[in-house]
Amino acid sequence: MSPFATILKVEKRDDYDELIRDLIPWYLASEKEDLILLETALSKKDFATLVEIGDKMYGHGRTYGFPFITMLGKRIEIAAIQGNILMLSELIASLRNYLQDCCRKHAID
Prior knowledge:
CATH superfamily: HPT domain
Radius of gyration: 15 Å
């Protein structure tokens, strides 16, 4: 069952916050997978994939309590639209460092 399936059953804000906290390890693992996809897309200059992943990060980051990921996602999306490889490299490096810090904080491998 998808971790999102239980969201529909949440009735109170406290339940929602607890559910989101429980999903953080899953979310961070998903972001680590996206990081690999971003690095691969950058190496291939696959700007469409970079835009798509950046947009997804922008949409999901704040939901899970990671506004920095939201900001990076938007910047990745814009840099990909512009074809700015240098900026994309810097943003992806920032994401890598941030995810390492978050995973350490949440005790995730």
